[in-house]
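USER: My hope is that you can spare some time for a protein that puzzles me. I am handing you a single protein, as its sequence and its fold in C-alpha cell form. Walk me, if you will, through where the backbone shape changes along the chain. The protein I mean follows directly.
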Amino acid sequence: MYGIYKFKRLGHILRVLSKHGLEEVVSRSNIDRIIPDSFLLWNTHTRRIFEDDFNVRVRAAMEELGPTFIKLGQLLSNRADIVPRDLRQELIKLQDEVPTDAIDIKSKLQEAFDIRIDEHFDRIDETPIAAASIAQVYRAVLKDGTIVVLKVRREGISDIVHADLDFIRDLVKLLRDKYEVIQRINLYDVVQSFANSLLNELSFTNELNNIERFRRNFKRNGNIYVPKTYRAYSNDQILCMEYVEGIKINDINGLHSFGIPTRTIVQNCLDLYLEQVLQHGFFHADPHPGNVFVNKRGQVVFIDFGSMGFMIPRDRDIIEAMVINFLMNDAKDLIRNVKKLAVVHHIEDERQLERDAYEIFQMIEENALDDIDISVMFRKLNKILQYNSILLPDFVYILLRGVSLLEGTGRELDAQLNIPESIKPFATKIAKEKTSADYLKKQLLEKSKFVKEVLTEVPQDLITLLEKTKSDKLTLNHKVQDFDRMQLILHRIGNKFLLSILAMTFGIGASILAHGRVGYLLWGMPILSWLGFIVSFVLSTILIMYLLRSK
C-alpha cells in the first residue's frame, strides 16, 4: 500500500517541479519581446508565468509540495553561503505563511484520549492560532483556567514525509554517482542528517520528552522560561503545553515597550545557547525568531522542541576545546580537535589549513557583527571542509544551522556585537570549571578506567590474534571504492571490444569469400560476402554511435 502511495507522491512531485521549473525556461526565453502582451497574457496561467517573480514561484512550489520541502526551504533560507539574498528573503516566509488544514480538533481529542471534552476543557478555539508545515496550533482553556496550546499533527503527514525523503535521497544518490562535486561536499550525509531531524519532528512524544529534559537542564537559570507540558492530553500526534505570552525575539519595538535593552537579550540568548551546547550537549536545532520569544520579565522562551541536537560527552568536550582554541587563536590545536571530531578527513597540507584558520580568526575578531560578511565566511569554511574532505558528525551541521540563525537575529538586534568578546565570559566560566578539584578528580577516574581496560583487554586481544595466525584463520578484508561503477565501465568496454571483434571478423570473412568466389554470385561477388559486409557495416555503425555517446 505504501509502495503505491510512494509512486503517486513521486508523480505529484514531478508534476509540481515541471509546472514551476519548465515554465521558467519559457519565461526567460525573451519570447515576450516579440509577441504582443495581449496574446501572451490572455489568461491567468500565462500571466503568472511572465509577471510573477521567479523567487515567489520557487517559494510557491515548495509550499505546494508540502512539509518536507517547506522544511528544506526553511533550511535554505539561512544558508547565505549558497542561496542568493533575494531568494532567501522569499524563503523566510515559509516559516510563518503556511496554509491551514480543516481539522476537527474536538473530535480528534475525544478519540485520542477517550474523554468528554466539556469535562476537561472550558473552551477550545477551533481556528488555529498558528500553522506550521507539520502541525497546527490551537488555543484552549483547561477546567482550572490554565491557558494551553494544542499542537496537532496534520493528517497523512507521515506518509508524505517518508515518500518525499525517499525521493530526495534517491535524487542525491544519483547526483553523487554522476558528479564528483556532490561527493566532495558530502551532500548525501547532509541530506541524511536533515531526514533524521525531520523524522524526529514527526513524533510529538519525542518532543514532549525533549521539553521536559530541556526544563530540567535549566531549572536553576532565571534567564530562561520553559513551558509546562500536560501528558494527560499528549500522545504521538497531539502535544498539550502551556501557553506563554511573549513577543518574537527580533521584535525591536516590542522589546523597547517592555523596557528591555536589545543588547541584553542578544547576550542572554548567546549565553543560553552556549550553555545548551557546551554544558548540556542538548541544544535547540531551529532557533529562528518564530521559535524564540521574550516574555514581560525579560526571560527567553524557546518553543518547538521537535528538532534538537545531541552530543555524547566526548564530542561535547571536543567542541568545548575548539571554542577555547578559537578564542585563543590556537590554529594547531584546533586542527587536532577537528581531526578527533571528524568522521572522515583527508588533510593534505596542515600548514595551509592552519593559515586558513588564522584568516577566519582574524576576520571574526577584528570586526563587529555588522561588518562580517557571513556569506564570505561560510563559503571559505565550506571550501576548507571540501578541500580537505572533512566530514563532521550530524550534530555539527545542526549546530552550524543554529549558529547561523542566531547570527541573523543578533545582526537585527545589535549589529555592533563582537562575538569573541561576548563569548569570553562564558568561556572563562568553563575554564574555571575545568580546573576545579571535582572536575580533575572525575577526569583522573576516567583515565584510570581507560588504563585498566587497556591493560586487561589488549593482551587478550593479542593472544587471540596470534592463535588465529597460527591456525591460518586470519583473514584480511578489503574494499574497492566505487566497485559497482568500475564494474559498469568494464562491462561497457567489453561490449565495445566485442563489437569491434565481430565487425572485423565479418569484414575479413566477407573479403576471403569474395576473393574465393564461393557460391552464388550477385554483381560479380558471392551473396555470403554481401551479407558479411552488411553485418560488418551495421556493427561498425553501432560501435561508432557508442563511441560518440560516451564522449
User: Anything to note?
Assistant: Residues 22-35, 39-43 have pLDDT under 50 and may be disordered. The longest strand covers residues 135-142. The CA atoms of residues 5 and 159 lie 8 Å apart.
